[in-house]
Amino acid sequence: MKTRAVRLHGAKDLRLDTFELPEIKDDEILVKVVSDSICMSTYKCAILGTAHKRVHEDVADHPAIMGHEFAGDIVKVGAKHADTFKPGMKFTLQPALNYKGTMWSPGYSYEFFGGDATYCIIPAEVMELGCLLEYKGRAYYEASLAEPMSCSIGAFNAAFHTRMGVYEHDMGIREGGRLAILAGAGPMGLGALTYALHRDRRPGMIVVTDINEDRLSRAAALFPVEQAAADGIELHFVNTAKMADAAAELRAMTGGAGFDDVFCYAPVAQVVELSSDILGRDGCLSFFAGPTDPKFSAKLNFYDVHYNSTHVIGTTGGNTADMIESLELTASGRIDPAVMVTHIGGLDSAGEATLNLPQIPGGKKLIYTHISMPLTALTELRAKGAEDARFAALADIVDAHNGLWCPEAEEYLLANWVQD
Questions:
Q1: How far apart are CA 130 and CA 321, in angstroms?
Q2: Greatest alpha-carbon span in the chain
Q3: φ and ψ at residue 207, rounded to 5 degrees
Q4: How far apart are the C-alpha atoms of 252 and 275, rounded to whole Å?
Q5: In Å, how far are 162, 174, 272, 274 from 280, measured between CA atoms?
Q6: What does the alpha-carbon distance between residue 396 and residue 390 come to, in Å, rounded to a whole number?
Q7: Chain center to CA of 259
């Protein structure tokens, strides 16, 4: 079967290739990809090439399909898995395989397995690890976004706290505590925010910081502080660029006590150091954003580490349980991962969007792999509708859903754009 895919041939070398997939083996599964959302980690992979830990040395000879946040339909099932999976099933998957100690993952490491493709082959280890999940929801994009949501869920679950003289970790954020999400008005920060507001174990205060007023305004519109207050959470959106002494002013918001949990969503030394400075006693700093520089470092207050029991953790992706939690919370309507999405496009726009991701404003870029469409901001749909009535219809649907992408928009898109 022929497939089209955006593949990595080397550092900064992404190409939209058409090639033949091999016949699947008895322990493999052939799938049709419908949606894939672009991750900042994919940008880092594309920029670094073989310098990235997940990219194999011979990628020039065996190009790797990009994309790991994907969902679609099962097309053909190898005999070994015929009792569990059937053609026609919707699927999503947990890409953080950690198979036999390797860092191989779809979207970085595999020649025939990745999300920026029309069709791909899921290898045996995915099923062996239980990482292929049947998806019973309505919209493919929600399954795609379950992966980035699972990363934030994993970070929340990995946080921990201690008690003096007790050598046990109390896992998770502090219930009823003070939580800060720094550089948090981007797509992953908003994902973390919707999870923090609607999970079972919630903080009593959440402060979201950023230096971009437009991002903060959008976040505040999506998450009204009055609604959070009705749920017992004191919510603040803060532009730290307007603060003379950000650390002092943020600590003052807590009555001087500092924050129990701080999530750092930017690999910027200044943001990391601010995260350290606002920790309260037994405060947990979660460094979420992965840097491209292997020597990236920032100052940490070791006086507080010793006397105030502050500590730092880092996570890279969630696990399958985190993914399942994300899907369940979305299905029940408790979280809406669409808050992360600001752009849509076809497979023909995925390569350029990936290579230029830091320069493109907004949040998640959602790719539909069987259509041709320039990367388009949801806020630009109305203007494009002047020349193409389909965009006007999409704009009407999005506007009716508070400016967010939604199942109705996806269904209209898939029904009205030519499919490869």
A1: 10
A2: 68
A3: -120, 120
A4: 14
A5: 13, 12, 15, 12
A6: 10
A7: 24
Cα separation values, 327 from 3, 320, 341, 351, Å: 28, 11, 17, 27
Q: Tell me how far apart the alpha carbons of residues 185 and 191 are, in angstroms, rounded to a whole number.
A: 9
DSSP 123: -
337: its two tokens? 């991962």
> Which amino acid is residue 159, in one-letter code?
A
- Which amino acid appears at position 292 of this protein? T
Yes or no: say if 185 and 269 are a contact pair by the CB < 8 Å rule. Answer: no
pLDDT digits (tens, 9 = 90+) for 261-307: 999 999 999 999 999 999 999 999 999 988 888 899 999 999 999 99
Q: pLDDT-derived band of residue 102, with 50, 70 and 90 as boundaries?
A: confident
Q: How far apart are CA 384 and CA 381, in angstroms?
A: 5
Q: Where are the beta strands (DSSP E) in 295-415?
A: 311-314, 341-346, 364-368, 376-377
For residue 369, what are the β-bridge partners?
Answer: none
Q: Which residue is associated with the tokens 């007790």?
A: 166
Nearest to 8 by CA among 42, 40, 53: 42
Note the pLDDT tens digit of each residue in 357-394.
Answer: 999 999 999 999 999 999 999 999 999 999 999 999 99
Alpha-carbon distances, residue 228 vs 217, 220, 236, 393, 401 (angstroms):
16, 11, 10, 32, 20
